[in-house]
């Protein structure tokens, strides 16, 4: 049930729109990418600047209400009932400094804007698999993208951040100013504050050799076993993943893929096309592809590697990281989600980690999962009463079947998790530091939606 809130002078300084549940535009403002949830916050502040965000936090604190933040809604994990929602989609400032090779972006910016702004200078950001995802939410959760084995997590390259903390203060932090807060917001997601702006390094990468190869679903056993042996032999210039996909009969998909169960090999090589072709040759030889889309590409075409959905959809997801991927683990994945499993899941993905992912950054941060060898992520569409039960159950069953090789997880790919399970991603020392930082910068505990560390 939505809380009825009184008017308050604290919001009188807000420049952007303020929505209550009965206001026109409320429904459109709260909807996110994950439409499995119907957000029902008591109040929405359409923030345009830091001071709008700070006013929203102070208002929530005065009333003892939780605060949530949303740009694109890719990370939505609950209905946000009774919360004060800060919508940052209007905060769209994005500047690139080609000399310093840096970008500065506000909280509503998506990766596509940064990619396009950097491309004319031969530069690229450490974006994720989809350019429709918001920069700040992705980065504060670590950020594992198609260049990760060469450059590490996106959070490793953040130079400074502007943060509105739980006391309603606006703070600019970096390695020298508020080092604990700077450490926590790079990997701790939104547990200690709302990041309204970040500055980060860009890399010189005008092009790459890569894309995806779609194989028939029935070839999944041969492909997954071949991939688990091949992937660890790759150089750091190469990042790869493989996914089992149950594709819908969507007319926007290429006709050979519509309505099919397929195995999708994803590949990004930062070196020459000749090197890349030689590296991927063993996988091309495993089975006859349905479509081979791997080629030399401008970096701006990086969405072609994963071909993630661009439109909102209902999602229920879970993830884990693995210390190793023996044949037995692959057999568990095939039993739970392979072509003969009758699985309701639409995606099961394995990503190769290692390389720069495993190395500590110059300025330490709170990113979890750094020392894993692989990550596993699964997702289903909980549409309909049967799927609403079957999808979470099958996601959980798959992750639990891999428990002998589990080694933590990645915040952005962990899915639904209670505070204790989420807190287990960090070492005892790092979890204690996160919680101590939260107590100091969010004394009232207003940031307690979606990502809660216990």
Automatic annotation (TrEMBL):
Cofactor: FAD
Keywords assigned by UniProt, alphabetized: FAD, Flavoprotein, Oxidoreductase
Domain of life: Bacteria
Residue stretches making up the FAD-binding PCMH-type domain: 37-205
Entry keyword Transmembrane helix: no
One of the record's GO molecular function terms: oxidoreductase activity
PROSITE patterns: FAD_PCMH, OX2_COVAL_FAD
Protein family (similarity comment): Belongs to the oxygen-dependent FAD-linked oxidoreductase family.
PANTHER family in UniProt: BINDING OXIDOREDUCTASE, PUTATIVE (AFU_ORTHOLOGUE AFUA_1G17690)-RELATED, FAD-BINDING PCMH-TYPE DOMAIN-CONTAINING PROTEIN
Protein name: FAD/FMN-containing dehydrogenase
Organism for this UniProt entry: Pseudonocardia endophytica
Organism taxonomic ancestry: Bacteria, Bacillati, Actinomycetota, Actinomycetes, Pseudonocardiales
């Amino acid at each position: 049930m939505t809380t009825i809130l009184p008017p308050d002078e604290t919001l009188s300084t807000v420049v952007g729109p303020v929505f209550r549940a009965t206001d026109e535009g409320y429904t459109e403002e709260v909807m996110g990418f994950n439409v499995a949830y119907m957000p029902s916050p008591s109040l929405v502040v359409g923030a345009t600047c830091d001071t709008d965000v700070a006013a929203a936090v102070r208002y929530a604190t005065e009333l003892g209400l939780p605060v949530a933040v949303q740009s694109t809604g890719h990370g939505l994990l609950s209905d946000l009932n009774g919360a004060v929602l800060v919508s940052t989609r209007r905060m769209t400032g994005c500047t690139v400094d080609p000399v310093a090779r840096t970008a500065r972006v506000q909280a509503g910016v998506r990766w596509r804007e940064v990619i396009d702004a950097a491309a004319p200078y031969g530069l690229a950001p450490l974006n994720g698999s989809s350019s429709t995802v918001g920069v700040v939410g992705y980065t504060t959760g670590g950020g594992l993208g198609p260049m990760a084995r060469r450059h590490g997590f996106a959070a490793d390259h953040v130079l400074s951040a502007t943060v509105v903390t739980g006391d309603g203060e606006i703070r600019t932090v970096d390695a020298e100013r508020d080092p604990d807060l700077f450490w926590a917001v790079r990997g701790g997601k939104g547990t200690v504050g709302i990041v309204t702006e970040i500055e980060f390094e860009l890399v010189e990468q005008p092009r790459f050799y890569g894309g995806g190869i779609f194989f028939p679903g029935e070839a999944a056993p041969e492909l997954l076993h071949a991939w688990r042996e091949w992937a660890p032999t790759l150089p750091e210039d190469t990042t790869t993943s493989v996914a089992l996909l149950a594709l819908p009969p969507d007319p926007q998909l290429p006709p050979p893929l519509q309505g099919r169960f397929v195995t999708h090999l994803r590949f990004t090589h930062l070196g020459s096309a000749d090197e890349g072709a030689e590296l991927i040759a063993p996988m091309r030889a495993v089975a006859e592809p349905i479509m081979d889309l791997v080629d030399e590409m401008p970096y701006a075409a990086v969405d072609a590697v994963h071909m993630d959905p661009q439109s909102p959809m209902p999602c229920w997801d879970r993830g884990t990281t693995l210390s190793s991927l023996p044949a037995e683990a692959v057999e568990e994945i095939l039993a739970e989600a392979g072509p003969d499993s009758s699985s309701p899941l639409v995606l099961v993905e394995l990503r190769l980690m290692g390389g720069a992912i495993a190395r500590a950054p110059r300025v330490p941060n709170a990113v979890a999962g750094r020392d894993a060898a692989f990550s596993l992520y699964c997702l289903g569409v909980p549409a309909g009463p049967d799927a609403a039960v079957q999808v979470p159950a099958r996601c959980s069953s798959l992750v639990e079947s891999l428990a002998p090789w589990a080694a933590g997880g990645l915040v952005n790919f962990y899915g639904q998790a209670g505070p204790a399970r989420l807190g287990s991603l960090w070492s005892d020392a790092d979890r204690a530091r996160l919680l101590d930082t939260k107590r100091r910068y969010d004394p009232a505990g207003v940031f307690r939606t979606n990502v809660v560390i216990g």
